[in-house]
TrEMBL record:
One MF term in the entry's GO annotations: serine-type endopeptidase activity
Lineage of the organism: Bacteria, Bacillati, Actinomycetota, Actinomycetes, Kitasatosporales
Name of the protein this chain belongs to: S9 family peptidase
Keywords from the named record: Hydrolase
Pfam families reported for this sequence: Peptidase_S9
Keyword Membrane in annotation: no
Domain Peptidase S9 prolyl oligopeptidase catalytic: 405-607
InterPro entries the UniProt entry points to: 6-blade_b-propeller_TolB-like (IPR011042), AB_hydrolase_fold (IPR029058), Peptidase_S9_cat (IPR001375)
Species annotation: Kitasatospora xanthocidica
One of the protein's GO biological processes: proteolysis
Top-level division of the source organism's lineage: Bacteria
Listed transmembrane segments: none
Amino acid sequence: MSEEKSAVPAWEQRFRAARVSLPDWAEDAPDRSLYVSNATGTYEVYAWDRATGAHRRVTDRPNGTTDAELSPDGDWVWWFDDHDGDEFGVWRRQPFAGGPDEEAVPGLAASYSAGLALGRDGTVVVGRSTDEDGTTLHLRRPGAAVPVEVYRHEEYGGIGDLSHDSTLLAIDHTEHGDAMHSAIRVVRITADGGVETVAELDEVTGRDEPRGVACLGFAPVEGDTRLLVAHQRTGRWEPMIWDVATGAETALPLRDEQGRELPGDVSAQWRPGAEALLVEHEYEARSELFSYALADGRLTRLETPRGTVSGATARPDGTVEYLWSSAAEPSAVRSTAGTVVLRAPGAVPPGSVPVEDVWVDGPGGRVHALVQRPATPAQGPYPTVFEIHGGPTHHDSDSFAAGPAAWLDHGFAVVRVNYRGSTGYGQAWTDALHERVGLIELEDIAAVRAWAVDSGLADPARLVLTGGSWGGYLTLLGLGVQPDDWALGLAAVPVADYHTAYADEMEALKSLDRTLFGGTPEEVPERFTASSPLTYVERVRVPVYISAGVNDPRCPIRQIDNYVERLELLGKPHEVYRFDAGHGSLVVEERIKQLRLEIDFVRRHLGTAGRDGDGGAA
């Protein structure tokens, strides 16, 4: 290692190290793959010809690109072209081997994406979402000059899947008004390009306890009308097979070699040939893979290391490729054949420290937290960062993340809380967020905070509350609702003024908010007010750092400016950093800059000298 290289702190090396996503491959040309990488310093789309070993960058934009798909024949790369991260744009396409971009579906105005389906015969279905039209789906048959609208509804929905022969289209929708529990409609595409309803699967309408269903994909066989579906009928996510032509439903009794039912949430995808499924099992912040034989119901575990599988795909040769990492070990694309399939160019980033599992009794049940202690001879209590995940329907896992690793390098303990609302702990845990939005999550975070202090892990005078997106929202809300619990707050791309956020945010999030709160701000203003950080800004007692994307459609800038103006009027110590992108940045140096500003803010206000992220104590 050169002297210049060794001078770069480990935390910056982790951010700068190149990463790759799980490669997607063309159904009829499996040697042609597509993945996303930050090898140039910005996350962009890459084409990979496995037959020749050639890798080619497809997109090159200042603020990066991540949404892309391969056509089934592998001839075209489709990618979503928005403006500086605002998520509002159109689909373009480019030949797999390279060439000029072209507008993929002329005649469709810019919108938020509600999915894309590419048929093997050239059929295209484009999903669009706008404030004016709600959700619309547009079908273009081979040879047609313009697409035809085949679906429209004011509530949010999107494309589920297109059948192997392009005759059936599955639509995930929330026409019933519950954005947390979708339903499925399957339509047949007629010869003249119209559609007619074939089947409906709705576990919400008319039920006291709504259960969601979601499309996982049609069987990859010509003429096969079986649809793999995820459902919550048993209070958790698990798969079943639904024949949309006959209405027959086939339950999948997923039990391991010892006959035990898999706990936690379970998803699946078809393996090539549709005679087996690739099963993805998520439980207590970790995941594993199985193969399920449909003929005899045998479930076979696929060997993966302890940690998190962030995505997997079954290849035609029988192997399974998966993206794996743990909190201690960086990610890599691996194969069940025992090889590393794809590794980003350059040096492997430094590892970090493993997580400890902690369970704490909270007001709504046992709360799972992931805890990391700094690798330093010093004993606790440590200055501690509570890093709160976004979503809210998401969860922290035992996976590699450069942000928490950076705080550990600076001598901080890191605690991450899978509060009520998080996924992976059953439907009741996820669905607990209703009406008292934000306040419920803070109760769970407070319970874990009390454990962290009482156990000797955390120094109560040096507790930092931080997070991005929904985690940023909970940070600002927590500083006002729990003013005595935190020494500092760092909020990235947060909801800060909920009334204004609802007015300005993208339609998909308005739909979610109506579900969470039980109505609009006009219908239930008291609930939005009770859950808005702006309501409690006068109670904030500690310095606040906020970063915001000026083009953010999810947590728009105007509502953040409203919060900042109140901080200024009240004379509260704060700093604000605005960056020219959307809901976060795809540019590596920008991410490093943002974290460097946060670390500097914490050092100055906590009075911790620290070192330059080389693992020294703060």
